[in-house]
């Protein structure tokens, strides 16, 4: 190689992409994490909405019980149970990806 070729090779080497691009890898990991978060959020919102509908459907069955327990306490208890079930640690295991 001539001196001109050596100089050009050195100039091109400066612009060459690194073997491992950390910023690209972090951007990919960030995008995957955001997509996974969106799916998990949608799953949890769907489960919470389903539990809310179930609690709304079952509420008339407990209307007499709620009236005898100082009005509406049973519905509040059902809501608390629904929220607890939606946030339970076992729930992610039920929807775990394999």
Q: Can you walk through the features of this model?
A:
It contains five helices and no strands. It is rod-shaped and about 95 Å long. With 98 residues, it is mainly α. The chain is 77% helix and 0% strand. The longest helix has 37 residues, at 22-58. The protein starts with a helix and ends with a helix. The protein has helices at 3-15, 22-58, 63-68, 73-86, 90-94. It has one domain (3-94).
Q: What structural category do the secondary elements indicate?
A: mainly alpha
Per DSSP E runs of 2 or more residues, the count of β-strands stands at 0
Average pLDDT score: 78
Roughly what percent helix? Answer: over 70%
Number of helical segments?
A: 5
Low-confidence regions? none
Number of domains: 1
Biggest sheet features: none
Estimate the global geometry from the Cα principal axes: rod-shaped
Termini Cα gap: 54 Å
Question: What sequence of helices (H) and strands (E) makes up the elements?
Answer: HHHHH
Range of strand content? under 5%
């Amino acid at each position: 190689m001539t001196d001109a070729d050596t100089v050009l090779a050195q100039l091109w080497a400066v612009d060459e992409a690194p073997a491992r691009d950390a910023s690209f890898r972090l951007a990919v990991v960030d995008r995957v994490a955001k997509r996974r978060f969106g799916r998990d959020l949608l799953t949890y919102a769907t489960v919470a909405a389903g539990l809310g509908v179930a609690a709304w459907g079952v509420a008339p069955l407990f209307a007499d019980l709620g009236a005898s327990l100082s009005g509406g306490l049973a519905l509040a208890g059902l809501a608390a149970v629904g929220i607890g079930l939606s946030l339970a640690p076992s729930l992610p295991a039920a929807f775990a990806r394999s």
